[in-house]
Amino acid sequence: MAQQPSMYTDVSDIGEFGLIAHLRDTLGPDVPDEVHTGIGDDAAVIRQSDGRVQAYTTDSLIEGVHFDRTFMPMEHLGFKLMSVNVSDLAAMNVSPEYALITIGLPKNITVEHLRTLYEGIKKACDAYGITVVGGDTTSAHALTLSVTAWGSAEAEAVVQRSGAQVGDAICVTGDLGASYAGLKILADERKRLEDEGDDFEPALDAFPYVIRRHLAPPAQEASVRRWRNAGFKPHALIDISDGLSSEIHHICEAGDVGARLFAPTLPIHPETRSVADHFGDDVDVYAFFGGEDYELLFTADESDLDALDETTYTIIGEVTDASKGVLVEQGDGTAIPMQPGGFDHFDENDDGAA
Amino acid sequence: MAQQPSMYTDVSDIGEFGLIAHLRDTLGPDVPDEVHTGIGDDAAVIRQSDGRVQAYTTDSLIEGVHFDRTFMPMEHLGFKLMSVNVSDLAAMNVSPEYALITIGLPKNITVEHLRTLYEGIKKACDAYGITVVGGDTTSAHALTLSVTAWGSAEAEAVVQRSGAQVGDAICVTGDLGASYAGLKILADERKRLEDEGDDFEPALDAFPYVIRRHLAPPAQEASVRRWRNAGFKPHALIDISDGLSSEIHHICEAGDVGARLFAPTLPIHPETRSVADHFGDDVDVYAFFGGEDYELLFTADESDLDALDETTYTIIGEVTDASKGVLVEQGDGTAIPMQPGGFDHFDENDDGAA
């Protein structure tokens, strides 16, 4: 048969954000007054009758898409599953309270795998203060894990990605690029396993920090709690799941501002630098585009930062007028425009709407 | 290598309910006072600070597990996705208000498929009064759809599966076995398609009711609203997702009661009978074990039923002492014990905890 021109559009032609826009358009922009934040931020926020709000998020980890079971211990997977959801609530300045967990089981999984997975979930629930109240189990083609998590807050406490003010300091918690460095090491191990077969010996001991950051990243729920206790509230807030570059663009678009980042100030762990050196990579690429760091990116009035312990964040730039775009200033004082870049959602990351 | 005895336990050895018990044990039986209903009912129920409660459920539909895209129009799939979740809330006597939708996309899906899926979701949201506030999009091995839905209610309005009283009438909404009859027709079409190849001509027109009941079942949200308006409240309530037999056993176990069902009273649509006749099957098997009817099974004081329009429910039995077990009385007055039976969750159905 002759090839006909296709009537159909590939999903890759419109991308994840195009899909979310379609969904929002179809379901209608008319939402009830109770909806404080709908489709498009890290979490949805609903007003309650008592004046408080509840923030809701959902995120999935699918075998072969988000993780490789060969190098992902079940306990770490359970912990990470909760972290990726808690991170989305932290990105609204909200702590989690409850969760529903859906587990889709392939044929090649055992009860012992699942018990260990549950142990990791339990550890995370204890760390983050979450009560699991239900879920769903079903069969699936690959191990498919999905969580919905929510928590309540004062309405005034919620921080969206849109609130950046010109002149704000741009800050991050923790360090950047470590998760990607861990992924590089694990991918290299996988390749060695395939190449060397029976002669393969794992060599993971040299980089424990970055591997752990990839396999079982902590979410910044503790940062949110510290901020609450210190009376600190950022102007704009987002979590770094898709890489600093992608997230700073989200903040600039949502707030109609620009940003000037100072490359030499990016907080990078020594082990992350070692991994980049090992592979002959530029470590700034890890920090800007790596993704899955689950740190928080926020903007704030610089004087408000005095309320915080200065070891808990790093100033990496300043918010500018929208007309300036997003610039990265190098050590020599030159500044170059930055594209969103980051990793394609449909290959590496999820973290879609809400 | 010689085969070693396995250190591992197959999931099928402990089953879905065994897994849920493991999860509950691992995460600890100590839940906060705010948890009205935790793991194990159709939905989780959380007390709010204003004295009301919120009920939460999550349910998934996975291609190749819960549906066959060959015979599942995308619009119906979107509608069914919402119905299976709304049904779990209706099973707590709660109407839905909000939902998060997660969509896992295989490579062979197009934007046009998704638009049509969204249309079905939109229709269901309009029918059930749901606002979609967010979700997640990711890639997946097969089309993977997951929803979390929730709604609020007066605390006293919530009905659990555990409240049946000896002497209660056992009732169902709608009719039973139609979804399974529809599945039989579709499976037969699929077989004919494989056998006949290019000569295959679809023959779906003869059974529109049962096919629709399988592809786009309505949830009984309207029943719940009618009950609320009539001031009616059942003693025990569950939705019939896994078949009448399985669900009546859940009600009896949770309430520590028995049941006597009257087989001749089971409400069965004429078209469902025609399909059973067509295949030479016993239609009662469809009604007892078919599953996916998404009707409500409830028990109530018979005098309370006077508040309801009698065309909206059918009395199919009575609640007895636990020592009597679950019996089915035939037309000739003989009664036989009934096993839970129904379909294996890991092959046909999901609808796990919560």
UniProtKB/TrEMBL annotation, chains A, B:
Pathway: Cofactor biosynthesis; thiamine diphosphate biosynthesis; thiamine diphosphate from thiamine phosphate: step 1/1. It comes from the Bacteria. Mg(2+) 3 binds at D42, D88, D239. Mg(2+) 5 binds at D242. Residues 165-327 form the PurM-like C-terminal domain. Mg(2+) 4 binds at D42, T57, D88. Residues 40-152 form the PurM-like N-terminal domain. GO terms for molecular function: ATP binding; magnesium ion binding; thiamine-phosphate kinase activity. Keywords: ATP-binding, Kinase, Magnesium, Metal-binding, Nucleotide-binding, Thiamine biosynthesis, Transferase. Mg(2+) 2 binds at D59, D88. One of its GO terms (biological process) is thiamine diphosphate biosynthetic process. ATP binds at Y118, G135, D136, R161, S241. Its EC number is 2.7.4.16. Mg(2+) 1 binds at T58, D59, D136. It catalyses: thiamine phosphate + ATP = thiamine diphosphate + ADP. It holds the Pfam family AIRS. HAMAP family: TMP_kinase. Catalyzes the ATP-dependent phosphorylation of thiamine-monophosphate (TMP) to form thiamine-pyrophosphate (TPP), the active form of vitamin B1. PANTHER family: THIAMINE-MONOPHOSPHATE KINASE. NCBIfam families: thiL. Belongs to the thiamine-monophosphate kinase family. This is Thiamine-monophosphate kinase. The gene is thiL.
